[in-house]
Amino acid sequence: MPAPFLACYSERAEHDFVRSAVMRKRNKVLRDEEMVPHRKVLERSRWYAYCRELGMPLEHVMSVLLDVTGGVHAGLTFYRERRRPFSMRDQARLQELTLLLTHTVRNCRMYGEVAARGQMLGAFFQRQATRCIMRVNPFMEEMRTPPTTALLMKWFHSSELGPLGLPSVLVERLALLAARGGTGAFGLDTWERKGEARDLAGQDLRVTFTHLPMQGGQELWALEFQELPRAIPVPEAWRQILTPREVETVSYVLQGWDNQLIAEHFGRALATVKKHMQNIFDKLGVDGRTALICRASLMFRGTLS
């Protein structure tokens, strides 16, 4: 990309239809024909004109946003300056690589942090994260951050814990991964549990297994635990107050969409969406977006009692 493109991107990002499209469908490869309704919309977009001004004619694009971990994202975008659309075969090939690319970026990021701090294990635990380090052959827990124990007690019954103090199901998964040598295990290096109990409702637990570099001839694995909130549903009482379109808009707000994304989804001006949102706030008697989300969350938890 030309330097001016990168230097001014933050000022132009709101017009980037590629960014807004892949943000709505993370980890899914999209071609330009799936990002805009038809070719004329692309050619009339500010983004199309801006790229041509920089001497970088944008005729076709294929892109994917990789959801790495902990709110970190990475992206891969291919542009073509001639009118030759990316094929479904191109799309399928890139889609096959997305999982590999995601794990590669995640591991590079982790190793980069380690290298910057010096000592791998010490650096790995400097942040207040829920992690533990496991040694293989024999299986033994090397280190654990303080928050990890509390999280395990929250999500697992004592009967589920094995001799190592970790859930048996996680030790079994680690044994399977270690037997594969950390290769050919894509899809097996994450484990999830849905929160069913009242105090866990509305969130899931994800455990990510990462094969670390050898230390003193020992094979090490990191287990990272993340509590992931699910999207809050639109309260039934609100459905009686709002129009179908307003209900749909609120559902997007509860998924974390900003006004710009909502505007692009509905094909409306940003000012129109802001006015639309204010009407919703007035109907529901809330001061703004944060109050709306908080009230929806409280109402959702209230329905569980």
Description of the structure:
It contains 15 helices and 8 strands. The chain folds into 3 domains: 3-115, no CATH class; 120-229, 2-Layer Sandwich (Beta-Lactamase), CATH 3.30.450; 236-302, Winged helix-like DNA-binding domain superfamily/Winged helix DNA-binding domain (Arc Repressor Mutant, subunit A), CATH 1.10.10. With 305 residues, it is α+β, with helices and mostly antiparallel strands. The strands form 2 sheets. Strands 5-4-8-7-6 form a 5-stranded antiparallel sheet, covered by helices on one side. Strands 1-2-3 form a 3-stranded antiparallel sheet, sandwiched between helices. It starts with a helix and ends with a helix. Helix 13 (259-266) crosses helix 14. It has helices at 3-7, 9-12, 17-24, 32-35, 39-44, 46-53, 88-117, 120-124, 146-155, 168-179, 236-239, 244-254, 259-266, 270-284, 289-302, and strands at residues 30-31, 60-69, 72-80, 131-136, 140-144, 190-194, 203-215, 218-229.
- The oligomerization state is single chain
What share of residues are in beta strands? 15-25%
Strand line-up in the sheet with most strands: 5-4-8-7-6
Helix content: 40-55%
Low-confidence stretches: none
DSSP, total strands: 8
Distance between the termini: 54 Å
Structural class of the secondary structure composition?
alpha+beta
- Mind telling me the C-alpha Rg? 23 Å
Q: Can you tell me the number of structural domains?
A: 3
The arrangement of helices and strands along the chain is HHHEHHHEEHHEEHHEEEHHHHH
User: Which whole number gives the mean pLDDT?
Assistant: 81
The biggest beta sheet is recorded as: 5 strands, antiparallel
In DSSP terms (H or I, runs of 4 or more residues), the helix count works out at 15
Shape: flat
